[in-house]
Amino acid sequence: MVEPRAQRSPAVPGTEPAPPDRTYLASLLAGVERAAVTAAPLGSRFHGAPEDVLDATEAAVEALSGELLDLSHRLHANPEEAFAEHSSVGAVADLLTAHGVRAQVGVHGLDTALRAAVSAGDGPTVGVLAEYDALPGVGHGCGHNVICASAVGAFLGLVHALRSGAVGGTALLLGTPAEEGGGGKETMARAGALDGVDTVVMLHPFSYDVAVQPFLGRRQVRATYRGVAAHASAQPFMGRNALDAVVAGYQGIAMMRQHISPADRVHGIVLDGGQRPNVVPERASAEYYVRSAEPGTLADLCSRVEAVLVAAAAMTGCGYELEWDRQPAYLPIRANLELAARWTLHQRRRGRTALPPGVVPENLSGSTDLGNVSVRVPAIHPMVAVAGPEVSLHTAEFARAAGSPSGDAGVLDGAVGLALTALDVLADAELLASVRAEFEAAGGVLDVEAFLG
Q1: What global pTM score does this model have?
Q2: Phi–psi pair at 285, nearest 5 degrees
């Protein structure tokens, strides 16, 4: 129970920012703890791969632990931002080569994308996705070193199973650049990277172990206003203030926020507000991220944002230009509960309890281009705890956790979980049929290009 706080003194302006009150956050985290006690993990009615095959694959991944952690640490110590991950993708290719797997670098339209595949006999194709880009300023504050190393470990575990003759099919590893804003997966998908792929698996580090966590769709819009310059003191009446249009748009969106769904998000910054105070700005611009939990609600929210931004131009007498999605838009993740249930079972053998949907609040979420994959191919994007619940993604604290022993545990547990989940798909035709049926019931393949216009 959260204790009532003593009456606060009135805020006094100072030279430092006021720290945010943590009462609401503490209440959220306490709610997760209570819900987790009684939550029933996802279950599966399918057999999956034989137990001896699962055991052998797990042992194969464990045998790679030193190499996988070296890869994670190397990426963590040398963070590279979107589209510049040359050393990182090179490290992945070198490790694959050391295990007799040929890797192609510079594929599907991106210089730092990677593709490697190993086949044995007939069977489905399972893709494992790796991310390795970092954030400016905080390095691997999103833990993509963990994502990458776990994906490579899962892929090599599948390669071991295929080469041993335990299962048939194809294991595919895709290195996907620029998740942090660049939308590498969308670019690769449009270039055919997912053609012939039956399912896709990947994970993300987090502050909880979660089988399914919603990620919001995200679009971007840049509003540029054109006014008329004038002397701000001598002849302000001869000007039309482009900065006023930016401010009006910003305020309009701020008022709109109280009338959107709780999971929706709209946030923006001013990019250009003019050059000098004594000149009426003839050009100003702002950029916004628009996020929502469903493709349909995302489209509706974007139309409402656009209406506000256009109205801001009309009320200030300015011209305007709206530019949507300078980089690929991100769609919400479409969860596949059949695949997530297999992940849950395999995390249990690693001593982890993957929480089912609804335990961790849905508004503790960002966006990812894996959403664009999940509406093309059945996919999962479970979360692996590497930090405490009070630590947020995209911070220096989370970056430290991603390179710590808890991050290392996430690499190994995640690699095993992904490998065994993918192995189930290769070994169990009934499971794959159910995965496909769930995907079709959720809407089937979405024409992303047509949806985004």
Answers
A1: 0.92
A2: -150, 155
